[in-house]
Design brief:
Arc Repressor Mutant, subunit A; about 50% helix; mainly alpha
């Protein structure tokens, strides 16, 4: 059995490598927002920026609401959301589940 120690290797996930390579401004850290995607160097989650853009906010309005974001960061969020819509939606749903129920005190 000693010879088979590495027989259960972790399967490489190319989509995770692609995130790091093609979206360097977007990171996932377990110590920030529970591992949800955030803009690198900030604590601003991608799903929040995406939701605001989808609800009609302009790039300037987003940058005014989040002064640490640059125009490049907003573009990176858009590219990430287009490349990984299911991840952004999953992050949003997880956040919504963590909110208290209506009327809870």
């Amino acid at each position: 059995m000693r010879g088979n120690r590495h027989s259960l290797r972790r399967v490489a996930r190319p989509e995770l490598r692609r995130t790091a390579e093609s979206h360097p401004r977007i990171v996932r850290r377990s110590d920030m927002w529970g591992g949800k995607a955030v803009v690198n160097g900030t604590r601003i989650p991608v799903f929040m920026v995406t939701e605001r853009l989808q609800s009609g906010w302009s790039h300037d309005e987003v940058r005014e609401a989040y002064p640490r974001l640059t125009a490049t960061d907003v573009e990176a969020v858009i590219r990430y959301a287009q490349a990984f819509p299911a991840r952004v939606l999953a992050d949003l749903k997880a956040y919504e589940r963590s909110l208290p129920a209506e009327g809870a005190q």
